[in-house]
Amino acid sequence: PKSESAAIQRFGLGCLYLLLFQVIGMFVSDEFLLSQDFRDLSFVRKHLVVGIWGRYTLYKYISCWLLAEGACILFGVTHNGTNENGEIQWNGLENVKLSLFENTTQFNHYIQSFNINTNHWVAHYVYKRLKFLGNRNLSQLGALFFLAVWHGYHSGYFVCFFFEFLVIYLERDVQSIVKSNETLSKFFEQPSVVLIVRILLRLYTFVFMGFCLIPFVMLTLEGYWHVFVSINFSGVVLFALYPI
């Protein structure tokens, strides 16, 4: 079956995200987060910059995946049968779901939409095999520890994936509290409240995804500690103190 149009679409998206990566990088970079200019910004502007920097960081990976996927589609290796409408699917090697990624309202959406194949592999071969621990949180910690070691031995990898655990823990707990409380559930189902909450959650995921990436990119304690100090340890206070 013909694959040219699907290949051009993903390749074109790859070029677009590569362009966005280059343009954003002209204004926000790793070096900027370590600069005095960043430290001199207001509290709110710092966090917005961290969010934009997080997108800049992730767009690097997304552009590479989309460009590679376009080539793989062209050669036919991504053919994945047909959907319920009989349309040919070329998503056999899809590694990012752009619509979900760009509209996240919870961190679990990032897990579902970003680096999909790696996440599926770890869930199947690591997370599920830790079922014998008898605790979902321990299984998740074990899987994330595996991912940290897989990336390398810099402390930043371990801090980053530990924050992922804390963020998911917080979100699951809050969702459980809301669902178990009828009054809260009805309040959050009101149309006007739904819109406001959605906007706030979009900002929350946008900003704090950038925060969680700081140790992943800076790698060393000296690097990510410097940025944490600049933003007054906001994410540390929010996520690390929540279980306590």
Overview of this protein structure:
The protein has helices spanning 4-25, 30-33, 36-39, 43-74, 98-101, 107-113, 116-127, 136-151, 155-180, 182-188, 191-218, 221-230, 234-240. By secondary structure, the chain is mainly alpha-helical. The protein folds into two domains: 1-96, no CATH class; 116-243, no CATH class. The model has no long low-confidence stretch (mean pLDDT 93). Its main location: endoplasmic reticulum. It comes from Rhyzobius pseudopulcher. The chain crosses the membrane at residues 7-28, 143-170, 191-217, 223-242. Pfam families: MBOAT (PF03062).
Summed up:
The chain is mainly α. Helix content is 73%, strand content 0%. The model has no long low-confidence stretch (mean pLDDT 93).
Helix-strand sequence? HHHHHHHHHHHHH
Assign an overall shape. globular
Strand-residue proportion: under 5%
Question: Ranges with pLDDT <50 over ≥5 residues?
Answer: none
Keywords: Acyltransferase, Endoplasmic reticulum, Lipid biosynthesis, Lipid metabolism, Membrane, Phospholipid biosynthesis, Phospholipid metabolism, Transferase, Transmembrane, Transmembrane helix
EC number: 2.3.1.23, 2.3.1.n6
GO molecular function, one term: lysophospholipid acyltransferase activity
Pfam families: MBOAT
